[in-house]
């Protein structure tokens, strides 16, 4: 059965799985031990080119966007089909760069809030591998209080003029488009004066600085916006109702970070520590004797992983069936953060000296590098502290955190960067 026929009649899961297995075997490159998150790319720029080409191959074969609706280029299939594809493509190079945030966070939000034109314009282009997205959410003044955004967009006829700065943006320099949370009304309380703009990343007025990390990588960027014009038809959702859209972005982000998104292709980003598992397995084989402490740590790593996987499945099913409210997506997000930090420490402890000083090309070195970035597991996608707040307030029904600024016009709210607040005359 061809891809287009499969689209018109629902293909049995077992038949789909067999077709996916054969196609993957014939069309994708085996990883042969390469990191699935880098594939066969030689550097970051090469990684983008390869990811776009492989995403296009998936599209041409009818395996892109399995859970997206057919009218926007997907296949309208249930998550079991994506899981089957992911299982059959394990060990092959996949366009993982497209998963987060493009396919697991931003496209689902465009599906939720986009106009028909926006959905037709942006979703198929992403599924074809033509446009990679980034999120412009966090600001230099803080990322947790997203509703306190100071980046501003001022209406001027058919465009908004964007000014301000965003930071921590993952691979902004590689991306084509961004969703940008900005303030469009300063005279209402902070949650009521935001809008979400869809912004072309590489254009006059946007300066991107890459930030070098302690581990030598350059994932994050800071962007500066100087009078950037954004057409009003690129507002996602309603003007000044950007908080509703942002909350949905965060919901999809927690599902993605927590490992329960139905849109994720290939190994989940929450499995990124898989490399450490491989290294753990190698270490286990190479560790001489029956050191009980090492055996205990390996046991702990396995148990934590199994528990996390079961939690992801259970919470995901419960949210989909309505037994748990959507904010319960913060539970696997919290578990993922805690697991990431603990696994990094376990791997380092087992690897010992070789994880801090290694021979060129020895994969054990990845453990030492990953340990340096371990706190990122508790920050990216919203911090674990914020996840705890959400679980207590919106899942367990405990009293809400007191807040001084939710009822006052944002212009009157003290921020740690008040000099960026425009005067009433400015906007
Ligand atoms: C790997 C990674 C990828 C990222 N990618 C992106 C991206 O692509 N785009 C983007 O916009 N951002 C991105 N971020 C930024 C991330 O969203 C922020 O780091 C995060 O939201 C926290 O913001 P902050 O670092 O400014 O800390 P702050 O908000 O300044 O918080 C500082 C500390 O105070 C705690 N805190 C704050 N408020 C509360 C509260 N009410 N209750 C309890 N504790 C609180 C926080 O948990 C944190 O520990 C990324 C971060 C990482 C690590």
Sum this structure up briefly:
The protein has 427 residues and is α+β, with helices and mostly antiparallel strands.
Verbal overview:
The protein has twelve helices and eight strands. Among the domains are: 3-96 and 124-129, Acyl-CoA dehydrogenase/oxidase, N-terminal domain (Butyryl-Coa Dehydrogenase, subunit A, domain 1, Orthogonal Bundle); 273-395, Up-down Bundle (Butyryl-CoA Dehydrogenase, subunit A, domain 3), CATH 1.20.140.10. A four-stranded mixed beta sheet has the order 1-4-5-8. A four-stranded antiparallel beta sheet has the order 2-3-7-6, with no helix packed on it. The N and C termini lie far apart (58 Å). With 427 residues, it is of the alpha+beta class. The protein is globular, with a radius of gyration of 22 Å. It binds flavin-adenine dinucleotide. Flavin-adenine dinucleotide binds next to strand 1, strand 3 and helix 12.
In which order are the strands of the major sheet placed?
A: 1-4-5-8
Share of residues in strands: 5-15%
Radius of gyration: 22 Å
Query: What is the number of beta strands?
Result: 8
Q: Which descriptor suits the 3D outline?
A: globular
Bound molecules: flavin-adenine dinucleotide
Q: What is the class of the domain at 273-395 in the CATH system?
A: Mainly Alpha
Counting helices, strands and paired strands, the structural category is alpha+beta
């Amino acid at each position: 059965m061809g891809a287009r026929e499969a689209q018109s009649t629902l293909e049995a899961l077992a038949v789909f799985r067999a077709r996916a297995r054969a196609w993957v075997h014939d069309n994708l490159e085996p990883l042969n031990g390469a990191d699935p998150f880098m594939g066969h790319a030689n550097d970051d720029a090469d990684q983008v080119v390869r990811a776009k080409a492989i995403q296009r191959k998936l599209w041409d074969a009818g395996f892109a966007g399995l859970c997206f609706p057919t009218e926007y280029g997907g296949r309208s299939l249930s998550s079991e089909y994506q899981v089957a594809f992911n299982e059959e493509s394990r060990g092959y190079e996949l366009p993982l760069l497209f998963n987060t945030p493009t396919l697991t966070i931003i496209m689902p939000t465009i599906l939720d809030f986009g106009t028909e034109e926006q959905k037709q314009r942006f979703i198929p282009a992403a599924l074809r591998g033509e446009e990679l997205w980034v999120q412009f959410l966090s600001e230099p003044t803080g990322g947790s209080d997203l509703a306190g955004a100071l980046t501003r967009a001022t209406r001027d006829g058919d465009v908004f003029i964007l000014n301000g700065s965003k930071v921590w943006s993952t691979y902004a320099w590689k991306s084509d488009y961004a969703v940008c949370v900005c303030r469009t009304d300063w005279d209402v309380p902070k949650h009521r004066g935001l809008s979400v703009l869809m912004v072309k990343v590489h254009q006059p007025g946007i300066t991107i600085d890459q930030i070098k990390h302690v581990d030598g990588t350059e994932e994050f960027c800071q962007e500066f916006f100087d009078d950037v014009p954004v057409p009003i038809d690129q507002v996602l959702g309603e003007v000044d109702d950007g908080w509703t859209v942002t909350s949905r972005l965060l919901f999809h982000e927690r599902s993605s970070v927590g490992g329960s998104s139905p849109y994720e292709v290939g190994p989940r980003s929450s499995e990124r520590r898989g490399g450490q598992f491989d290294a753990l397995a190698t270490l286990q084989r190479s560790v001489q004797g029956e050191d009980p402490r090492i055996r205990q740590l390996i046991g702990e790593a396995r148990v934590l992983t199994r528990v996390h996987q079961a939690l992801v499945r259970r919470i995901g099913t419960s949210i989909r069936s309505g037994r748990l409210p959507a904010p319960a997506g913060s539970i696997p997000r919290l578990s993922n953060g805690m697991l990431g930090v603990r696994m990094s420490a376990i791997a380092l402890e087992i690897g010992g000296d070789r994880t801090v000083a290694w021979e060129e090309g020895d994969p054990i070195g990845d453990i030492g590098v990953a340990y340096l970035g371990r706190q990122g597991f508790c920050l990216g996608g919203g911090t674990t502290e914020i996840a705890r707040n959400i679980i207590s307030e919106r899942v367990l029904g405990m009293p809400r955190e007191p807040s001084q600024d939710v009822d006052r016009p944002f212009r009157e709210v003290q921020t740690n960067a008040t000099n960026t607040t425009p005067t009433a005359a400015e906007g």
